[in-house]
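USER:
Try writing one entry.

ASSISTANT:
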Amino acid sequence: MAPLAELVARFRSRTVAVAGDVMLDHFLVGRVDRISPEAPVPVVRFTHDEHRLGGAANVAHNLTSLGAQARLVGLTGDDEAARHLERALRTAGVDSSGLVADEGRPTTRKVRVVTSRNQQVARVDYESDDEADGAALEALVARLRQAAAGADAVVLSDYRKGVVVPVLIRAAAEAAEAAGAPLLVDPKVPVADRYRGATLITPNHHEAELMTQRAIRGPDDARAAARTLHERTGASVLITWGEHGMWVLDASGERPRETSLAAAAREVADVTGAGDTVIAALALSLAAGATLVEAAKVANLAAGLVVARFGPAAPSLDELLAAAASARA
């Protein structure tokens, strides 16, 4: 078996705690035959709808789809969207006992109107980005500590919806250290120092630009941005860069090591949720004993599988094993 495939095969015995902003993606799908006489917009004739897991919930779904155990911690409202979310999590095999219901906020829900050809017409967001506090924050911290106990990796999925606040980040760093596990953060807040204590941060290049106030137009820019982020957080850095691949700064040794990886995707249909797949594959790879560069190669393969599909998606373990078996180590 190829070295990367051997690594992926070890995913089955791993457990990962995921905390962050859980979301429900709701798709209203229909056919477009004409333009409305009331306004220059298409009339979508409804055919069906579907729900998918988004945000931190999609990270957890990717973990279970790849054969691992996922313990999810997040914040929902007390509403019908929360019940849809919990049903979808059960179907995906995700342990959702760490979810906290807050009657004062809605469950984050993204409603997308799309055509039968997967063209998005409109999106309506139901959400609150108020930072969690009081009893809800105390419950989140307590459930994060429970979820992280004995875990092989801890992931924070930050979509700026109020869960990944400084108190929770500190608690995650402490819990990961106690478990002897890496802490991976998919960041959204442009203040990089907020994520100090992480083992690895995984911004896309737009987020890296905001966090460093530096335009990333080429490898030299990516290298400089990664070094700046490392200086501010103390963490290793992986910058995802669309069709350009990834820039990796591995700070696990005495001296940081840097490398660039080309993108694995041959066909791109939709990048929605690709970052969730990347951090899930990274967490499992590191938990399985990979170096950061090996983990990045596996994550690159996993991202290449999901961007060929519409909407948030999760590759199966068999699909990733096949991709890893045919890839060069």
In short: Residues 134-148 form the longest helix (15 residues). The chain has one domain: 3-34+42-326. The two ends are 11 Å apart (CA to CA).
